[in-house]
Amino acid sequence: MALAEEFRAIAGRVNNWGRWGAEDEIGTLNLVTDEVVRAAAAEVRTGRRVPLALPLRQDGVQTGLIPGRVNPLHTMVQLNQELFGPGSVACSDDVVVMGLQAGTHWDALTHVSHSGQLYNGRPAHTVTAHGGAEFSGIDKVRHLVSRGVLLDVARARGVDRLAGGHAVTPEDLRAAEEFAGTRVRAGDIVLVRTGQVQAYLAGDRHGYGYPSPGLSVRCPEWFHARDVAAVANDTLTFEVFPPEIEDLWLPVHALHLVEMGMLQGQNWNLEELSTACGETGRYTFLLSATPEPFVGATGTPVAPVAVL
């Protein structure tokens, strides 16, 4: 089977265009119903809160591999300035210039296109230089709270960190389910831990980005069969990089965002969560991960919190 034919075959099996109507702009987030959120709230047992975002800093995770995706450049524009005259309250203000996908972030459904199309069959040219995304921009995701499930693939395989270039397969995901003693269900947000973020946390920025473990092109069918609402992991590229199939670049991005209409997140710090889940023996939790509502943006920073 030729590479293009292989991709099209998978795309045909996971395609969600029209599933929630021709006007739909949020894809699999339609699966996060009120009932799903009520059930997710019941996952809270101790109230322990675990932050999942990396710090936003100038020496952040971006290394130049992705053009234009700059780490945060933080500047003070006011320093204890008495705005209303001497003796009045003094203010300090900041400005940040950064790539919206520079740190811990969500990719919007418009982040990638293929064959000239975006999710739900909309044309790729509806993303413009001045307006950004006309449809399915990240601002259309007004809230995102659901049950989170940590699939700790690394620990399930008996290692603390997967090797660079390891393609996480559906078999890996099933093994991580068994390791966690749970089962992924409709409306869940799945967090896949590879341990790769440890390289960045240890100061090895270049070792973090390339080569990278990540999801195999076979994984989208696994998520589709379980009606997963969104997926995030702890890597720079999300999917295995370099690609597992020669010259087939970012196929998981295209399958998730374009064909399925499923948000995906990158650069999530899952280390503390892995420890907490291991200590409690529970790998499910309430997850709050609402994106910053930049109008027309194709991605955005997020500061997710898992509540155990």
From TrEMBL:
Pfam families to which the protein is assigned, alphabetical: Cyclase
Protein name: Cyclase
Coiled-coil annotated residue ranges, if any: none
Molecular function GO terms recorded: arylformamidase activity
A single GO BP: L-tryptophan catabolic process to kynurenine
